[in-house]
Each structure stands twice: as C-alpha cells, then as structure tokens.
Design brief:
- It comes from Aliiroseovarius salicola.
- This is Phosphomannomutase.
- Keywords: Isomerase, Magnesium, Metal-binding, Phosphoprotein.
- There is one protein chain.
- The chain has 461 residues and is of the alpha/beta class.
- It folds into 4 domains: 138 residues, Alpha-D-Glucose-1,6-Bisphosphate, Chain A, domain 3; 90 residues, Alpha-D-Glucose-1,6-Bisphosphate, subunit A, domain 3 (Alpha-D-Glucose-1,6-Bisphosphate, Chain A, domain 3, 3-Layer(aba) Sandwich), CATH 3.40.120; 88 residues, 3-Layer(aba) Sandwich (Alpha-D-Glucose-1,6-Bisphosphate, Chain A, domain 3); 77 residues, TATA-Binding Protein (2-Layer Sandwich).
- It contains 14 helices and 20 strands.
- The strands form 4 sheets. It has a 6-stranded mixed β-sheet with strand order 1-5-4-2-3-6, with helices on both faces. A 5-stranded mixed β-sheet has the order 12-11-13-14-15, with helices on both faces.
- It is globular and about 65 Å long.
Length: 461
C-alpha cells in the first residue's frame, strides 16, 4: 500500500476518498490494536456525515484483532479520553475531523490511561503497519459493547464538575453555541447536574442540536467570520459570558459580557490564576508562542511556569512529566492534571464562572487589564514560497538584536520591550507569527507591520 498521507504530526486527518476511507481506517484500527497489544478499546465519533461509517470500519478492524470495542457513539473526544481511563481500557479512538472542512475526517488516538502515543515509536509503528497491511491471521473475533455508555457519561459529568465549587457560583446568564457539533448532548447533562445542585446559572442555547450538515457553518469559533453569531447573542441576551465549541468540543472559546472574543493567550493566564489561587505552589505548563501575560500572572501567584512545544501530544507529555496542575495553549487547548492530563472543552468555562463569581468582576474588565499590560498580535499566518529561506531571512535581521532566544517551538526572540515567535505549522504549509509587547500597543502595531511586510514579501501564490 502506498504511503498514508492522513498521518500528521500526532493525529490522523485527511480528505475523504483519496486520503481517508473505510478501508484505510480499518487498517489503522488493526495496526493500533497490534502495536498496543490492546484487548479493550473505547470508540467514539463526532456527528460528521462520514463519521458513522468510519466508526463502523474502526470497530470492524478492532474486532478482527480480537478487541472488545466499547462504543460510546456520538460524544466528545474528551469523553473517549475519560472513558479509556475510567474503564481501564488499553486505548481509545475518536473518529472526528473537529473543525476541518466538510470533506475531511480523522482519528484521535490514545493508549491506556488516556496517555498520548509516543510519536517516534508507537505512532510511527502504527503508520508503518497500516501501510504494509501485514497483520497475519485474524485473532478470535472480538466483541462490541455499548452498555457502559450512560454510566460513562454520568461519571464524566461528575469529574468535570469536580473542578469547581458549585456553591460558590453567582447568578449568571450564559450563551452556549455548540455549532451543531458533538457538544450539545454532553453539555445538557452538565447543565442538568448544575441545576440539580442548585447552581443559579441560566443558559441560552444556540446551534445546539448535532447536525451532520453543519447548517450554521463548520464549528470553528477561531474563524473571525464565525464569531459574530455568538457575540451578537451575548449582547442580545445581556449575558455575562458566551461559550462556543469546535466540532468535537475539546476546545472552547469564550466571549466576554461586551460580546468581545477572548484571545486564547489571555484565557490561559486566567485559568493559571484560578488554579494558583487555590494552591500557589503548583506548576503551570504553557506553549511558547505568547508568554508574558501568563508568566506574569504565574509569578504574581507564586507558581512555577514550564514551556512545552505546541501540540497536544507534547503538552500532555510535559504535563505528566512535570506534574503540572494545568496546561494551556493559546489555540484553546486546555489540559488538566486531574483529567488524565488531557484537554477538555467543558472544564475551562466552568472554571471561569467560578473565577468571575470569586472576583465579583466582569470578564471584559479582567481581560481589558491584561491586554493593556501585555498587548498581543494574536497568531498571524503566512503562506510563503520557501519556509526555510523565509525563516533564515527573519533570523538574519532580528536574531543579532535579541536579548534572549528560545527554540523550543520555532524561533522565539526577546528584545526586552517586545518579543516574537515564528514557527512552522504542524499541520499546514504555513508560517505562524506571534508578537507581544510590554504595555505598548503602538510598539506592537509597528512591529506587526514591519514583520508582516517582510513575510508578505516571501508569500507564495
């Protein structure tokens, strides 16, 4: 079999038909079972049109390898992570393309304990075996079980709500936008549990029902064109907070009480502050793209900050190695030690509700203060003709002037009053630029214009 181009840095994603189909995912499932010597595997899927057929093919491949398949059906990726650990399974697979275009799909894979696969050994071995198809004779056929579905979701809801003190919550109205992805049913169980516990929170649901057609657009709240729907509803409802999820809800995006989108780097700082308020001796992991606001809040609270390379496989490993209570990426992935060091799109907004209740402040005021102290460009993407040549040109011009340099993930250069990070995308042929400054919005804008002009000069057609 030819090379499987659906294998990316640490996940599987591809266009349906030419890169990904039922035969391909069946091969991957068999390879997954063989490499991990799995006896029990948790399976889940998002509502995408192709996900049910791919899920059936995954189950077939696993059962051909003698595996007991525990199928959660429609659920979030984080529910697969949770059930893998909760049930003591040998691995978990979620069929999802998250926020990718309509004609894409993919697989997210974890091993026992919801731990990430080692990209150099296990993930690479699965790829080689799936490509070769040398599986040997079929094992005694495995089995298929859906009986744990309800109790797994109930246990998942309990775990998610364990991160907050429900009795501390103040009355609030929250807008939630599931984007017609997988979030709706899982959120409803969380909301019901909050209501039963007496939480004074009311919810305004929008685009709530899972729908394979995605009638309101692909659920990717990071796209500027997708943000007004949630923003406008927050304003219309007079809500204190808006929450929007991507397709498999392992990421959540927040909107403040003024309807403004909250950039991910500022949410990382808020969540770090929330954990350190409870225990100032804890470690916080963050990615290297935009760091000053997060590091300032961690230092003020007495915590310890640790870098990790961008990407969930890398973040999870550093989380586990360091024992960090929380880790955050500006791309809206948030990881929690007491959630198997995995990412969750449900825990963050609950922690923000608790933080707002404790501070008796609006989210807009909290974010405004941090943006003033540490303005940030947000991530700016450039499609360039020659990535290596472009990076070399930036390095030649700016590196000699830098006071400090870090190459944990791309090239980070610190000039004292401003800082840049330039890195290659893990998944697309792009260069990603982030710039931050210390309390100087004018300087930030000047550096953004300067670097953008330089990178645009290397743009590909």
């Amino acid at each position: 079999m030819t090379e499987l181009t659906c294998f990316k840095a640490y996940d599987i994603r591809g266009r349906m038909g030419d890169e990904l189909n039922e035969e391909v995912v069946e091969r991957i499932a068999r390879a997954f079972a063989q490499v991990l010597q799995a006896q029990t595997v948790v399976l889940g899927r998002d509502p995408r049109a192709s996900s049910q057929a791919l899920s059936n093919a995954v189950a077939k491949g696993l059962m051909c390898s003698g595996v007991t398949v525990i199928d959660l059906g429609l659920c979030g990726t984080e529910e697969v992570y949770f059930a893998t650990d909760h049930l003591g399974a040998d691995g978990g697979i979620c069929v999802t393309a998250s926020h990718n275009p309509m004609d894409y799909n993919g697989l997210k894979l974890v091993k026992a304990g919801a731990a990430p696969l080692d990209t150099e050994t296990e993930f690479a071995a699965i790829k080689r075996l799936a490509e070769s198809g040398t599986f040997g004779s079929d094992a005694p056929k495995g089995s298929y079980d859906t009986s744990p579905v309800d109790r797994c979701r109930a246990a998942y809801v309990d775990r998610v709500l364990s991160f907050i003190d429900i009795t501390s919550l103040s009355p609030m109205k929250i807008v939630v936008n599931a984007g017609n992805g997988a979030a709706g049913p899982s959120f409803d169980r969380i909301a019901a549990a909050l209501e039963q516990a007496g939480a004074p929170i009311s919810f305004c649901r929008m685009h709530h029902v899972p729908d394979e057609r995605f009638p309101n657009g692909i659920p990717n709240p990071l796209l500027p064109e997708n943000q007004p729907a949630t923003s406008n509803e927050v304003l219309a409802q007079g809500a204190e907070l808006g929450v929007a999820w991507d397709g498999d809800f392992d990421r959540c995006f927040l909107f403040d009480n003024e309807g403004a989108f909250v950039p991910g780097e500022y949410l990382v700082g808020l969540l770090a502050e929330a954990f350190l308020a409870k225990d100032p001796d804890e470690t916080i992991v963050h990615d290297p793209r935009v760091i000053w606001n997060t590091q300032d809040l961690i230092a003020r609270a007495g915590g310890r900050a640790v870098f990790a390379r961008t990407g969930h496989a890398y973040m999870k490993q550093v989380m586990r190695d360091s024992g960090a209570v929380y880790g955050g990426e500006m791309s809206a992935h948030h990881y929690f030690r007491d959630f198997m060091a995995c990412d969750s799109g449900m825990i963050p907004w609950l922690l923000v509700l608790e933080l707002l209740s404790r501070k008796s402040a609006t989210l807009a005021d909290l974010i405004r203060a941090r943006r003033t102290a540490f303005p940030s460009s947000g991530e700016i993407n450039f499609r360039v003709e020659d990535v290596n040549h472009t990076v070399a040109n930036v390095e030649a011009k700016y590196a000699p002037l830098a006071l400090a340099r870090d190459d944990t993930d791309g090239m980070s250069l610190d000039f004292g009053d401003w800082r840049l990070n330039l890195r290659r995308s893990n998944t697309e042929p792009l260069l990603r630029l982030n710039i931050e400054a210390r309390g100087d919005e004018v300087l930030l804008r000047a550096r953004v214009a300067e670097l953008s002009a330089l990178l645009a000069g290397h743009a590909s057609d």
